[in-house]
Amino acid sequence: MKEQSILPESEYLNARQLARKLNVSLKSIEKWTAQRRIPCVKIGYHWRYPVIEINKRLLSGQLVSPLEKAE
Predict the structure, then answer these.
(1) pLDDT exceeds cutoff 80 at 42
(2) pLDDT tens across 11-28, in order?
(3) Apex CA 38: angle with CA 33 and CA 17, to 5°?
(4) Residue 52 domain flag
(5) Residue 4: inside a domain, yes or no?
(6) What b/e string do you get for 41-62 counting C-beta neighbours within 10 Å, with b at 16 or more?
(7) Which CATH number does the domain housing residue 25 bear?
(8) What is the per-residue pLDDT for 15?
């Protein structure tokens, strides 16, 4: 049996799907991706967001905490 190192494509969301799921703007997703604040992987030329990791962070409250203000 062959092991897979990444999840099947259906286990990933694109940026628009994630924005809808989190009820935030696409710009927020792009910003968080650039800052590496959310779990993501690059597949080809596109960023994808693993559903399992997103759900884990939602349950733990890591994705809903406010941004820290820089002083």
Answers:
(1) yes
(2) 999 999 999 999 999 999
(3) 75
(4) yes
(5) no
(6) eeeeeebbbbbebbeebeeeee
(7) 1.10.10
(8) 96
For residue 41, the cross-strand partners are 48
Q: Number of folded domains in the chain?
A: 1
- 3-class secondary structure per residue, the chain: CCCCCCCCHHHEECHHHHHHHHCCCHHHHHHHHHHCCCCCEEECCEEEEEHHHHHHHHHHCCCCCCCCCCC
Note if the pTM is more than 0.85. no
Q: Which amino acid is at 18?
A: L
Q: Is there a domain that residue 3 lies in?
A: no
Q: What is the C-alpha to C-alpha distance for residues 50 and 5, in angstroms, rounded to an integer?
A: 13
Higher pLDDT, 2 or 64: 64
Which residues, including other chains, have CB under 8 Å from residue 38's CB and lie 6 or more apart?
18, 29, 32, 49, 54, 57, 63
